[in-house]
Design brief:
alpha/beta; glycogen biosynthesis; allosteric enzyme; Rossmann fold; elongated; disordered N terminus; 9-stranded mixed beta sheet
């Protein structure tokens, strides 16, 4: 199944050749259906947007996306045009003649794929009739008060109608339709009920009920086989949505999901084992200069340092050159995204850094949107004070420089006692007095509407991280998405990520995890878990993820308290690294970006398409059901400069800088990069790996063995334990 018009996967350094039967894309039509086509709601938008170029390169003008019409999105993202394909043109014209409003054009993203957009409102008058069609097809009823589910029914009915019109005029071309998530699933159900000649794929990016259960702080993964699914869905008043999702799964010729951990979840929640796991990728762009991403890190780190100077004015008694910037970002799901365990680990990290009298300071950003009513006045004042001091310093510098210049022209060494006059000294004294503040630096940049009940702020109060002078861990909650037009922190998200040292995403429920994947592509180390699809993917593909800057916390096979201890060890170990060790680690992290490129991960989608064709049209396409196409996979080896034993670790484990001379001799960036490109190839298949508890890599391989013993000792020391744990109901 070789790509017709695509870039060969062998164009990626070190990736194995993959040659199987050719898929005749010129005789096929491919449709992808999703509520997030041109409509940014969540992660599915990123999946479709970043994958579009690879798919368009492969399928050319036979690739189409189907989504909802919103006027603003249409005006800003879509260029209208006439369909070239005759079957598409006829389908659009027919539906428009019957009172529907169907729009066709090119989505203005990389790859410029064709899009077909349906105006939901213009077809709402058909809702009652289409509810009857759905009931006849699968006996699922939708309550009138669930507006979202009703919109999805309209969208799905229009999709099924459109696909019928296309297949009626396809002139012998076979049609593949891939439906993303339950929002698009109604179209699949109706298409199969009407026996349309199409090959169908249903992809779930997260099960509906799974997300609800995890948000309720239930021990989800250890009780997957014990849930009464119907009862749980009914109690949450989503039973009809769950039935729509489950019907979609069982109607599809091929069922796929985005990660191995979600595949296990789907088998229990939706009662069908996924046929193919299709990991999410990104559109990876390499810089012409190998270390350009390191230069970008230095540039954007300086801008974050400017913000920190203003935010902590009057309390800036720590060295910014020895300050590390950590962050967590995403939807405000306190437990699902791991903000609870992260805050607990920060409390323990603060204790360790203070106890060991470390000169390292950690500033942690929480970029999670919440309800606010305005910027915090104290935060705005801090940035104003910083700018004022900067202007004063430049003014004095210019006067000083002019006097020095004039003295040198006269051939004199200036009298340093007279080079600054009394007015200059007065201005500088007033500037110093303006930096005095009676209060502590704020822990949030905005005024929170629900300050007293906000989970993050409530936890900060409990653990006592108030940005005191003695705290080595400082916390800043930024309850808005980042923007380059912000008066506080004028940076886009990508710029901010590049300027940080570590992204921390200890999620409990994360079907894939785009945030750590984006960090990896930018060369920024990250913390993830073995309950996220990204973490499981990296465990399978990288022999020692920690050496490559991917810290994987075990949240599946150990208690929350043990997981918190492990995260604390990772963070403390990262703080102990020298600057050179962090540079080496960033180089290694960035080299993993090939793993996340759609040019590589797109092969899983290719396999799913071929499989659905073989099931829908077995007389035209054939694939052995027990022998899916195999290819050589690869696993990044453990870097040669990382010793196999933690006790002897010098590069992989964080040590003080007195080993850097020996490090210089052992580490050669170009040689190591070349070995990674060649990599270790081992046979593997596109089929799923056996399930069960996998052997985890030694989580202590990146931490000092002495620290592991020491932190365990801290947990057993009764008096210290009280101050150290800040125990809570969950931990």
């Amino acid at each position: 199944m070789l790509r017709g018009r695509s870039l060969s996967v062998t164009s990626l350094s070190g990736l194995p050749r993959w040659e199987v039967e050719e898929l005749p894309v010129e005789d096929l039509l491919l449709f992808e259906v999703a509520w997030e086509v041109t409509n940014k709601v969540g992660g599915i938008y990123t999946v479709i947007q970043t994958k579009a170029k690879t798919t368009a390169d492969e399928w050319g003008d036979n690739y189409f996306l189907i989504g909802p019409y919103f006027e603003h999105n249409m005006k800003t993202q879509v260029e209208r045009c006439e369909p070239i394909n005759d079957a598409i043109r006829r389908a659009v014209d027919t539906m428009n003649k019957h009172g529907c409003q169907v729009y066709f054009g090119r989505w203005l993203i990389e790859g410029s794929p064709y899009v077909v957009l349906f105006d939901i409102g213009s077809s709402a008058w058909n809702l009652d009739r289409w509810k009857g069609d759905l009931w006849e097809a699968c006996s699922v009823g939708i309550p009138y008060h669930d507006r979202e589910a009703n919109d999805m029914l309209i969208f799905g009915s229009l999709t099924a109608w459109f696909l019928k019109e296309v297949t009626d005029h396809a002139d012998g071309k076979h049609v593949i339709a891939q439906f993303h998530e339950w929002q698009a699933g109604t179209g699949l159900i109706l298409s199969r009920a009407r026996k349309l000649p199409i090959a169908t794929i249903f992809t779930t990016h997260a099960t509906l009920l799974g997300r609800y259960l995890c948000a309720a702080n239930i021990d989800f993964y250890n009780h997957l086989d014990k849930f009464d699914i119907d009862k749980e869905a009914g109690e949450r008043q989503i039973y009809h949505r769950y039935c729509m999702e489950r019907a979609s799964v069982h109607c599809a010729h091929v069922f796929t999901t985005v990660s191995e951990i979600t595949a296990i979840e789907a088998e229990h929640m939706l009662k069908r084992k996924p046929d193919v796991v299709t990991p999410n990728g990104l559109s990876v762009k390499k810089f012409s200069a190998v270390h350009e991403f390191q230069n970008l890190h230095a540039t954007y780190k300086a801008r974050i340092q400017d913000f920190v100077r203003g935010h902590f004015y009057g309390h800036l008694d720590f060295d910014l050159e020895k300050t590390l910037f950590l962050f967590i970002a995403g939807r405000y799901e306190f437990s699902n995204k791991g903000a609870d365990i992260f805050l607990e680990a920060l409390s323990r990290l603060n204790f360790l850094l203070r106890m060991h009298k470390s000169d390292v300071t950690v500033v942690v950003f929480f970029i999670m949107p919440a309800k606010t009513n305005n910027f915090n006045v104290e935060t705005l004042k801090g940035q104003a004070v910083r700018k004022q001091l900067w202007d004063i310093a430049h003014s004095v510098k210019e006067k000083f420089g002019k006097k020095l210049y004039d003295a040198l022209l006269r051939g004199e060494i200036p009298d340093m006692n007279n080079i600054l006059d009394r007015d200059d000294v007065t201005v500088m004294k007033r500037a110093i007095f303006s930096t005095q503040r009676q209060s502590l630096p704020p822990v949030t940049t905005h005024n929170m509407i629900d300050d007293s009940t906000d989970p993050i702020l409530s936890t900060i109060r409990r653990i006592g991280l108030f940005n005191n002078r003695t705290d080595r861990v400082k916390v800043i909650l930024h309850p808005e998405f980042l923007s380059s037009t912000s008066p506080l922190l004028p940076m886009d998200y990508e710029e901010f990520v590049r300027g940080c040292h570590l992204g921390v995403f200890p999620s409990y429920y994360e079907p894939w995890g785009y945030t750590p994947a984006e960090c990896t592509v930018m060369g920024i180390p990250s913390v993830t878990t073995n309950l996220s699809g990204f973490g499981c993917f990296m465990q399978e593909h990288v022999a020692d993820p920690t050496a490559y800057g991917i810290y994987i916390v075990d949240r599946r096979f150990q208690s929350p308290d043990d997981s918190c201890n492990q995260l604390t060890q990772f963070l403390y170990g990262f703080c102990k690294q020298s600057r050179r060790q962090r540079i080496i680690q960033r180089n290694r992290t960035e080299r993993l970006s090939d793993l996340l490129d759609w040019r590589y991960l797109g092969r899983y989608y290719q396999h799913a398409r071929y499989l659905t064709l073989s099931r829908a049209f077995p007389d035209k396409f054939h694939m052995e059901p027990t022998s899916p196409p195999t290819t050589e996979g690869f696993k990044y080896p453990r870097p040669s400069s990382v010793p196999p034993s933690p006790s002897g670790s010098q590069v992989s484990s964080p040590q003080s800088s007195d080993v850097e001379d020996e490090e210089d001799e052992r580490y050669n960036e170009e040689e190591e990069a070349e070995r990674d490109r060649l990599n270790i190839k081992s046979p593997w298949s596109l089929g799923r790996v056996p399930r069960g508890k996998k052997k985890l890599h030694d989580s202590s391989s990146f931490t000092m063995s002495s620290f592991c013993c020491e932190s365990r000792g801290l947990l057993t020391d009764s008096q210290t334990k009280t101050n150290y744990l800040h125990s809570s109901s969950r931990f």
